[in-house]
Design brief:
Layout (H helix, E strand, L loop, with lengths): L2 H15 L3 H12 L3 H27 L4 H20 L7
GO molecular function, one term: metal ion transmembrane transporter activity
Family: Belongs to the GDT1 family.
Membrane topology: Multi-pass membrane protein
């Protein structure tokens, strides 16, 4: 196993999830639920499944597209999200 890649993936996803909408949803559900343990395990399962689907999709797409194209597509996607956050009136068109 590539321990360096495992650590890098863990740190990247962990930092990306702090303050993310999914964490805020888990906080809201945990605070309003009588069974925070169920919220915890449901959240874990959902994050694992979402990550699994992302890895499978990335691996499948990487078979057809070069890595540079994938990185460019991700960069363009993040740039578009940033622009929409900075100028929400662009969504009203």
């Amino acid at each position: 196993m590539d321990w360096q890649l495992l650590g890098l993936s863990f740190i990247t996803v962990f930092l990306a999830e702090i303050g993310d909408k999914s964490q805020l949803a888990a906080i809201a559900l945990g605070g309003s639920s009588k069974s925070p343990r169920a919220v915890f395990f449901g959240s874990i399962t959902a994050l694992i499944l979402a990550s699994f689907l992302g890895v499978i999709a990335g691996g499948t797409i990487a078979q057809f597209l070069p890595t540079k194209v994938l990185k460019a597509m991700a960069a363009i996607g993040f740039a578009m999200m940033a622009l929409r956050l900075l100028w929400p009136e662009l969504d009203e068109d």
